[in-house]
Design brief:
The chain is mainly alpha-helical. About 65% of the residues lie in helices and about 10% in strands. Strands 1-8 form a two-stranded antiparallel sheet. Strands 2-7 form a two-stranded antiparallel ribbon. A two-stranded antiparallel sheet has the order 3-4. Helix 8 (about 135-160) runs antiparallel to helix 9 (about 210-235). The model has no long low-confidence stretch (mean pLDDT about 85).
């Protein structure tokens, strides 16, 4: 059984090995460049990225869970885009929507994991549970949103405790507030910011510290989770009929699947 599993896994992931090789070599070249520049924090990020690259294959070999090539590719590119391109190459600053794109992918991937866990239990002979497609999709959606919220907690904690800036600031030129209503009524008034001076420096707007960034992250996480929940729902309704949908669903290796 073990030999059959390993042979099947090797044949199935030949082209994934090429992606692994390209990404790992890219990370190693960047790490050598960071060592030369004595940017040891970035060197640590490179090492962390190489470790994270091993997680999908580790899960497949140790837990015997089949991660489809499509999802595995998305995971690898997500890790590379977040740690190497986003942090080291500063894509978060160069491209304003880079963070938004990654949070959307995070919502999608988290929903895939949550859905697959429930679907595996739903089909496993050891568990006598039978959930409707709508309920499984809903659980996957809620799982993804929970992961998104926990990650925002982590960003806030890092900003407050370590002094990082994971929750990026946003410059706004106007806002609405009940607090500034001169009549003291519970009616918001619009405040247009024409000029703002802070410590003698003139700013072209008010800085919103993290709130807009956090809410936007959760909104796009919602979109990613919702899209995958639809895919998961259709997968259960059309089980065995769509080869496209199978590319996004994790499952246990079995004798039949081999």
């Amino acid at each position: 059984m073990k030999n059959i599993f390993i042979n099947n896994l090797t044949k199935k992931h030949k082209w994934i090995s090429i992606i692994y090789l390209i990404l790992r070599l890219s990370v190693i070249f960047i790490m050598l460049d960071e060592i030369r520049d004595k940017s040891y924090e970035n060197v640590f990020l490179c090492i962390l990225t190489l470790i994270l690259f091993t997680v999908p294959s580790f899960i497949e070999r140790k837990i015997h869970i089949d991660i489809p090539d499509t999802i595995e590719t998305i995971i690898l590119l997500f890790i590379f885009s977040a740690e190497i391109l986003g942090e080291i190459r500063e894509y978060y600053i160069i491209f304003p929507y880079w963070d938004t794109l990654l949070h959307t992918l995070n919502g999608f991937l988290s929903a895939a994991i949550g859905f697959s866990l429930i679907d595996i239990l739903n089909k496993h002979e050891r568990f006598s549970i039978s959930m409707s497609p709508v309920f499984v999709a809903l659980v996957a959606f809620c799982f993804s949103m929970t992961i998104g919220v926990v990650w925002e907690f982590f960003e806030y904690g890092m900003d407050q405790l370590v002094g990082s800036d994971m929750q990026k600031d946003t410059i706004i030129s106007s806002f609405r507030s009940v607090l500034l209503n001169a009549d003291g009524k519970n009616v918001p008034v619009t405040v247009n910011i024409e000029n703002l001076t802070v410590n003698g420096d003139t700013w072209n707007g008010y800085i919103d510290i993290g709130l807009i960034d956090t809410m936007m992250d959760l909104v796009v996480n919602f979109i990613g989770a919702f899209v995958f929940s639809i895919i998961g729902f259709l997968y259960i309704k059309q089980r065995g009929k769509s080869t496209f949908l199978k590319r996004f669903i994790l499952k246990f290796y079995t004798d039949k699947s081999l």
